[in-house]
User: What shape does this take?
Amino acid sequence: MRSRLATSTLAAALLLTAAAAAAARLSPEERLAKAIEGRSAGEPVKCIQLRDIRSTRIIDRTAIIYDTLGGTLYVNHPKAGAAFLHDDVVLVTDTHSSQLCNIDIVKLVDPTSKMLTGSVGLGDFVPYTRPKPEAKR
Assistant: This one.
């Protein structure tokens, strides 16, 4: 019985590892496309409200995705420093207002050593929204 359980556990672990490896093989552009799939791009904006940000996701060397309360994803392609973006860093934002804007600098910190690994200068925020369902008549 133990042998069967161990084999099942090992098989599940191998499947999870294979799935993670497949996801890791996606290029940054493919990961970004997958994240915004089914959404429509809106007009870029210069700032977003800090209080509306639920979470952030880094697309290596490409972009930062800000997930907001209304379900809109804001994609920011930094104007400078994008090469420092990796999904294993912590974003540290020091703002002096209630908004995150395209003139702000975001510091990148290694979560283990707590050392600064770089910084990015934000660009405009491109909103991506899901299409509204059509009203039934």
